[in-house]
Amino acid sequence: MVDGTKNASINQIKILRTQARAAGNPVLRDGTFDFLVSLAEKKRPRKILEVGVNVGLTGAALLLVCPDSALTGIEISESLSAAAKENYKRFGVDSRAKIFTGDASAIIPVLTGKYDLIFLDGPKGHYYEYLPYLKDALNVGGVLFADDVAFHGYIKGDAPRKHSTIKRSIENYLSAVTRDKDFLTRVYDTEDGFCVSEKLDGSNRGNT
């Protein structure tokens, strides 16, 4: 795909993202979206896993900037999964994308593929539960990108009791991934907060 066509498609995705947000859909925040897409364009992952596909606009953008990539998505909502498939078709990336529709807690433990980029934006109360499976599914040199790790600011402050389980899961996730010597991790306070963890090999673990 020539750059002009790619850029036009990304701009169209941004318009659709704005419309989705106006309709009450919790799409990825703009700065976080731009960071993730730029990271993918730089890293050029061959295999991408997206946990929490939503309407597929982020996945479509990742495939547009990585023309040799294939994406596997997990989405619990049948209606969102259907919308994502339509968006993949709209942007001509449907042949490189597949979606498992169902509960990520049941799907992630039985995944058999290996991935170069994992975008984690599913249910926040399960981040810590998913971590060992996602680590195993990530290739050395690959990146695990977790969104919404600030959880509306509750991680650095008090959370309502109804959100205490989610807060604890994210806290445990951040503690585990930042202490894990197999990862080089940076946590960003931008927007809803996101965490970028690169999986290391044995030769560069000592540089963390």
3D architecture notes:
With 208 residues, this protein is an alpha/beta fold. It has one domain: Vaccinia Virus protein VP39 (Rossmann fold, 3-Layer(aba) Sandwich), CATH 3.40.50.150. The protein is built from seven helices and seven strands, in the order ααβαβαβαβαβαββ. The protein has a seven-stranded mixed sheet with strand order 3-2-1-4-5-7-6, sandwiched between helices. Strand 4, helix 6 and strand 5 form a beta-alpha-beta unit. The longest helix has 20 residues.
Order of helices and strands: HHEHEHEHEHEHEE
Coarse structural class: alpha/beta
What portion of residues belong to β-strands?
15-25%
Overall body shape = globular
**Major sheet description:** 7 strands, mixed
- CATH class membership: Alpha Beta
Radius of gyration (Å): 16 Å
* Order of neighbouring strands in the sheet with most strands: 3-2-1-4-5-7-6
> Any low-confidence stretches, pLDDT <50, length ≥5?
none
